[in-house]
Amino acid sequence: MSLRCAVVGSGNIGSDLIRKLERSELLIPSLLVGVDPESDGLKRARAAGIEATHEGVQVLLDRADEFDVVFEATSAHVHTLNAPRYLEAGLFALDLTPAAVGPYVVPAVNLDLVAGQRNLNMVTCGGQATVPMVAAISRVTTVEYAEIVSTISSRAAGPGTRANIDEFTETTSDALVKVGGAKRGKAIIVLNPANPPIMMRNTVFAAVDANVDPQAIIDSVNEMVAAVQAYVPGYELVSEPQIDRGAGPRGTTKVSIFLRVAGAGDYLPAYAGNLDIITAASIAAAERHAILTGHTPAGLTLAAGARAATKERI
Amino acid sequence: MTSTHTDITYREPMASPVVGADDVAAPLAGRDILVCDTTLRDGAHSVAHQFRAADVRAIAGGLDAAGVNVIEVTHGDGLGGSSFNYGFSAEDDIDLITAARGVIKNAKLAALLLPGIGTLDDLKRAHDAGIDVVRVATHCTEADISLEHLHGAKKLGLETVGFLMMSHMVGPNRLATEAEIMRDAGADTVYVVDSAGAMLPHQVVERVEAVRARLGDDMLIGMHAHNNLGSGVANALAAAAAGVSIVDGSLHGLGAGAGNAATEVLAAALDRSGARTSVHTLELIDVAEDIVAEICKGKLPKLDRGSLLLGYAGIYSSFLLHTRRAAARYGVSEAEILLELGRRRVVGGQEDMIIDVAIELAGIQLPD
Questions:
Q1: Which residue from B351, B350, B356, B341 is spatially nearest to A239, judged by alpha carbons?
Q2: What is the CATH number of the domain that holds A75?
Q3: How many domains does chain A have?
Q4: Is A223 in the B-facing interface, judged by CB distances under 8 Å?
C-alpha cells in the first residue's frame, strides 16, 4: 500500500509535486490544498482526477487520518503556523519553504535523517543543488569556507522567492554549514531575465586545506553527482572541478565546481531546474519515509522498492 | 520627495578660470544639481576591493570638505560583496563605513545593497555604523526583489535609492514600470544606471524622460554613468538636462570597466553648463589628483580594449578585471571571453560565468 500524500499550496511547486507524486510507485497524490478557487494548479489536479480544495488547510486537518504525508509548498510564514498542527494531527511533514522548523534534509547527503523525524525542511533549490558538492569536499578535507552562486531564470522565480530573497540566502548559507560541513557559508542568488530562459546554474567555491589531494576531491565530487542524479536526472557538472592551490584566503586552496540543473519538465519547462531539484528531493525523502514505515509495493524488497521509485525518473 | 535634500547650500556656477563662462547659452542655468561620489564603492573595483580604513578617511574627508552631497562606501558589489565570486575585501564594509563616518561632517553617507548578495541584517549593521542612505540595486527588470530591503530601510529611518542596473537592456517604458515598483516600495530617489557603460546620451535622455513622465516631476531621479564608450560625463550632463537632479561620479573616474564619470570632471562640466551645485570644483580636482591618484597609482581605469568591449557589447563593467584574471589563468583571449558573455546575456552578479566561459574556451573537457 502506498503512502497517501497531501500537498498544501497550489502554485508552481505544489503543481510540480502533484505531477511527480502521480509517477511514484510508493506515493499517491490524494489531496491538493489551495486558497484561490481560480488557481490553475487546482484545476489541473481536478482534471487529473485528484481531489483539490480551495478552502485551505483546515480541510486537510479535519480529515488528517486519511493522509500520511503533507508537503508544504506555501510560504515560510504559513508553515511556521501549520507545523504544530501537522504534528498534532500525526502527519509526516516535508517543508519546501525556508521556514526551517525541522532539520534540513538533502537526500544525497543525509537521507537517513528521515527516520525518527516528523518535520523535515528541504532547504532551498540552491541548497539542494550545492550542499551535496560541499559535503563531497568536506568528506575528504576541511572546508574553511563554502560559497555558492545560484543563477535562475527570472521566469522560474515565483513571487514567494522574490519577496523573500534574504530567506533564500540565509537558509542556504546555514545548510552549507549544517549539512555541507563547511565551517562558514555564504550564498548568493542572481536572477537572469534572458529570453530564451537560461537553465539553472550553480557554482560552488570552497576554501580548503592547502595540502589537499586534488584527485580525492574530484573522485568524491563525481560520486556525489551520481548520487544526486539518482533523484534529479538533469543534475550535471559543466566542467571538471577546478582546483587552484593558494588561490583562497590565507593560502587555502580554492575549489570551483560548475553545475547545471535541467528540470524534468513536469509542470514548468526544463529551464526551471530550481523547481525540479527541490520537488524531486522532497519526493526522494517521502519515498524513504514510505520504505522505512513499511509502505513498500507488494512483491518488491525494501531496496528494490527504493530503486523502482527512482529509476523511472532517470 | 525633494524634502530629503533641503539643507544644501547651492552656489552659483563658477566661471572657468581660463575662459569666460558667458560665451555660450548654459543648458543647466538655474538648475540645482546634487553630486554623489562613489569612489569608495564603485571605485573599489579598480583596486580589487583593497581600500583600507586610512584610504577611506583620506578620500571621504576630501570629498566632504569639497562639498560633495553623498559619499558611498561599500565593497564594489555592495554590502556582503566580499566573496570568491566578487573578490574578498581587504577590510570589512562596516569598518570602512565607520572610518568614513568619523570624517564626514556635511555629506550624507551611503551604502550599496544588492538583494541576493547582501541582506537586511547587513543593512542593519551598516545603519548602526552610521549610514544615512542606502542604495538598493537590482537588475533593471527585477525591481520586485528590492521590496523587503526598501521597506526595511524605511523602518530604520534611512533615506532610500532604487538603483536600476543595466538600464540599457530594457526600453524606456519597461524601465519606467520598474522605477514605479521601487517608488511604490519606498524609494525616495530612483536611478537610471548604465552599469555596462553601453548608453549614449540620446538613450539616457529617452529613459530619464520616460521615468520622469511616469513618476512625475516631484520624484528625484538620478544617473549613474560609466565611461566605456567615452561618454560618461556627457551622459550625466544629458541626464541632468532631461531632468535628473542627482548625478554619480568617482574621483579620477575610478570604477568598474573604464570607470565612472569622473566626479571632478563632472563638477567642472556642471559649472560650465550653468548648474548650481554645492561642490568646490578646484578643491575636488585637488582631491582627485593629490589623494586618489596617489593611493591608486597604477590602478586608474583606462578606456582600453577590454573596457571598450564592455560598453560595445553591453556587459556589466565589474566583469573587466575578473575577465583579465581568468584570461591569464586559462591562457585564452580576454576579448573572446567578453564577447561570449555578451552572447550568453549574463547580468550583473554572474561573475562565476567568466571562469565558466574561460574553461570552455580553453577546451577543458569533462573526462568520459
A1: B356
A2: 3.40.50.720
A3: 2
A4: no
- Domain span holding position B211: 30-295
* Strand partners for A260: A201, A236
Owner of C-alpha cell 537588475: B139
A177 shares its domain with A70:
no
Each residue of B220-232: pLDDT tens digit?
999 999 999 999 9
In the annotated binding site of A for NAD(+), the residues are 10-13, 274
Task: Give the integer Cα–Cα distance in Å for B312 and A140.
Answer: 45
- B364 touching A, CB under 8 A? yes
Q: How confident is the model at residue A297 (pLDDT cuts 50, 70, 90)?
A: low
Q: Which residue type sits at A291?
A: I
The number of domains in chain B is 2
A125 is catalytic: yes
| CB contacts < 8 A (A, B) | 110
ipTM field: 0.93
Chain A contacts in chain B segment 96-155 (CB below 8 A):
115-117, 119-121, 139, 141-142, 144-145, 147-149
Q: Which residues of B touch A238 (CB under 8 A)?
A: 356, 366
Structural domain span for residue A286: 3-123+271-311
